[in-house]
Each structure stands twice: as structure tokens, then as C-alpha cells.
Specification:
Layout lengths: L9 E3 L34 E2 L8 E6 L7 E7 L4 E4 L1 H4 L8 E5 L12 E3 L1 E6 L11 E5 L28 E6 L16 E6 L3 H5 L10 E4 L14 E5 L5 E9 L11 E5 L4 H9 L3 H4 L13
Parallel strand pairs: 1-13
Antiparallel strand pairs: 2-11, 3-4, 3-6, 4-5, 5-9, 6-7, 8-9, 10-11, 10-13, 12-15, 13-14, 14-15
Length: 300
């Protein structure tokens, strides 16, 4: 996680009696390998995560024949669906050109716990535009088998008006850059960053663009997400210990770590009904006019 998440991270929902709406109740949001949460996360670029402690984190890598380069993150919400940022998949010419890697810790090397999944369908929110409504859902070709290193996060309760209080502690994870140098490398290991939510009006004061109610911001108190973190989860831990997906990384400062531009996430609670609706649509006919048209490919 670098000096700033350019587009994606994960958040933990808290004492709001959050229930699992992910279809994986009892399994979601409870990693068998607990994350190490301490002051080491409050540093520029975050700290290395305990392998397997964020088992819903997934990485998107190009097909090996195209070089196998990592380009975005996502988050597993059940045994066949991954949520990410719309801008991560917007310009992909085909769903066959990349794979979803689950159970990973190292970015470049294959972990023994790693599973590679193919994508059956890509659905961007129909109203997504740049960083607005910046959310997409992927359907995997085959259901994944949960284990200690691969498990879904919980979804928050759907809400169109309820927000997390300012200064709520949340966590973001990713393989993004760890310095402000645009030419610098991505992290080779999964990193985590502790951060805090901001009041909507306070965040708007830093931004030139209009901050919609469907977006949330976090501050640079201890560090920042960075380029390569896009699409990743922002999570918060509930009173009963479960982790809930509060945000998907959509954007941040043009230079990682610049405190004048907050980190911005798509607020997942605003899109839970949309996610549930998508998961209920199993055929091409049922999906007609539901997703944003993809001019570059036809998803069968």
C-alpha cells in the first residue's frame, strides 16, 4: 500500500450490528488467520500483512501470454463474485485477457495457497463515469472453495443515507506503490494501512470535483494508498469481530501521500441492492440493460 491508494482499498464495518448480505453468512468476514493490528500500520506505506489474514483480497493479473502483469485489486464477496472499481475493467478488451488470483500474498511469485480463477462476466455499474459510481462486479466461471486463505468479506447492510461516523478506524490493503515516486515499483507483498474516515463536508473542502453521497473519504494521518491499489477493499471490524466491506478504492492524490487530496472510495452500502440484484440474474437475457454496455466485447 503506498503513499496513497490511487484507486482501491478495503474498510471494516463496526458496531452497527452489520449483518452479512453476502450469501456466505457465518463464513464471511472472519479470517482463520487473524490480521496483526498495531501501530506498525500507521506508517507511510503501511506494513506487510500477515499472509492469509485478509483472505478476501484478490489481485487481477494479465494472462500469462500477455506478460502476467498485476494491474488492480478486488474483493471476494461470496464463492463466485468479486467486487472491484469500474475503472479497473473499463478498458479491458476481453475478460479472457486477465485472471483473478485468490489466496495470494506475494505479487510476483506464486504462493502455494494461490488459486487462479477465470472470469465469466464483467458488469460495470450502468451509471459509472470516471470516479462516479466507480464499482463493478465480476462473476467467476467456477465457484471457489473456501479455505483458511480464501474467504469472503461481509457486505454492509444496504443504506442510502446512513454513513460511518467521522474518524472511524478502517483498514485498506493492496500491492500498490509504497513511495511517491511514479516510477517506483509496486509492493511485492500484500500490505495493510490503518486510516480514518472523514466527514463528507470536510473532504469536499479538499476537492475540486463534486463528492457524491455514494463516496467516502479517508485521511492521510498515518500513510496512504497509492497507484496499484485501485479496486481494493476498505474494511471495518464490527463489534462482534466480523470484517465488513465499506469501500472500494476509487482515487486519491495525483502524487501519493499528498495530504491536500484525501483518499476516495466508492461507498459499498449504497450499492448492496445493486450487487444483490446482479447475483440473482443468471442469464444473458436477465442482464440485458442492467450493466453498462461494453463496446469492446460481448460477454456470453
Amino acid at each position: 500500500l503506498a503513499v496513497m491508494l490511487s484507486a482501491t482499498l478495503c474498510l471494516v464495518v463496526g458496531a452497527l450490528m452489520a449483518k452479512s448480505t453476502s450469501g456466505s453468512q457465518g463464513v464471511c468476514g472472519r479470517p482463520p488467520i487473524p490480521p496483526a493490528l498495531d501501530d506498525g500500520d500507521r506508517i507511510l506505506g503501511g506494513s506487510e500483512a500477515v499472509p492469509g489474514s485478509w483472505p478476501w483480497q484478490v489481485g487481477f493479473l494479465e494472462h500469462p501470454l500477455l506478460g502476467g502483469e498485476f494491474f488492480c485489486s478486488g474483493v471476494l464477496i461470496d464463492d463466485q463474485h468479486v467486487v472491484t472499481a469500474s475503472h479497473c475493467v473499463r478498458y479491458l478488451e476481453s475478460k479472457a485477457l486477465f485472471n483473478v488470483h485468490l489466496g495470494s500474498h506475494q505479487r510476483e511469485s506464486r504462493d502455494q495457497t494461490e488459486v487462479v480463477a477465470k472470469v465469466a462476466h464483467i458488469c460495470e455499474h450502468r451509471l459509472s463515469y470516471r470516479t462516479y459510481n466507480d464499482i463493478a462486479i465480476l462473476r467467476l466461471k467456477k465457484k471457489v472453495i473456501f479455505n483458511d486463505f480464501i474467504r469472503p468479506v461481509c457486505l454492509p447492510e444496504p443504506s442510502l443515507d446512513e454513513d460511518l461516523p467521522a474518524n472511524t478506524t478502517v483498514y485498506a490493503t493492496g500491492w500498490g506503490k509504497t513511495t511517491s515516486d511514479m516510477e517506483g515499483p509496486l509492493s511485492d507483498v500484500l500490505k495493510q494501512l490503518q486510516t480514518e474516515t472523514m466527514d463528507h463536508d470536510e473532504c469536499q473542502g479538499y476537492l475540486k470535483l463534486k463528492l457524491l453521497d455514494s463516496m467516502l473519504c479517508t485521511r492521510h494521518s498515518y500513510g496512504s494508498t497509492c497507484h496499484g491499489d485501485s479496486g481494493g477493499p476498505l474494511v471495518r471490524q464490527t463489534a462482534d469481530g466480523a470484517w465488513v466491506l465499506e469501500g472500494v478504492l476509487a482515487g486519491g492524490p495525483p502524487v501519493c501521500g499528498v495530504t491536500s487530496t484525501p483518499m476516495r472510495f466508492t461507498k459499498v452500502s449504497r450499492f448492496v441492492r445493486w450487487i444483490q440484484d446482479y447475483r440473482s440474474r443468471k442469464t444473458r437475457a436477465a442482464l440485458e440493460n442492467f450493466c453498462k454496455p461494453r463496446a469492446l466485447e460481448s460477454d456470453d
